[in-house]
What does this fold into?
Amino acid sequence: MRILGIDTGLADTGYGIIDAEDNLCRIVEAGVISTSADDDIATRLYKIHEALMGIIDEFAVDRIVVEDLYAEYPHPRTAIMMGHARGVIILSAAQCAIKVESYAASMVKKSLTGNGRASKDQVRQMVVSILKLTEPPTPDHVSDALGLAICHARPNRRRREMVGSDSGSRGLPPAVAKAIAKARGENE
It folds into this structure.
């Protein structure tokens, strides 16, 4: 399975793609989609969407994994901006008929380190170890994205599906698959 982990942000969205098979993970690609604070929000969201669509097309991912949003952010405006970017990511996945999965940050930390309150450095070191990297991925957005992908690949994880089920067009509910086909001008 090819898994795309995405660390959502408006200024910098980290992404990491891994291939997972038989509980082994191999890195395929990783990087950051950056937008300029000088651009308006619509332009920034469009840039994230376009870059993500290119990544999905180039690497033929099977699943997309994002971090859960939680309600008690110390900076509510940041949470709202992240929500906008996350919505674009979920829309991009739906346009490509790819299921999106979501995990709490504590679940990712526990899956990788065994401790739901692990530090970013501990998570980064486990990403290095699991993927057999020679050095830690930078910036943190990339490491976090790879951590999300690895969490999904691990068999002892608990998950909450956000989009779709195991039936239908590539895991999407029939109504969503039909709407996508109609938007693309495909015959019903």
User: Anything to note?
Assistant: Residues 157-170 have pLDDT under 50 and may be disordered. The helical segments are 41-59, 76-95, 105-113, 120-131, 140-153, 174-183. Strands lie at 2-7, 12-21, 24-34, 63-67, 99-103, 160-161. The chain has one domain: 2-183.
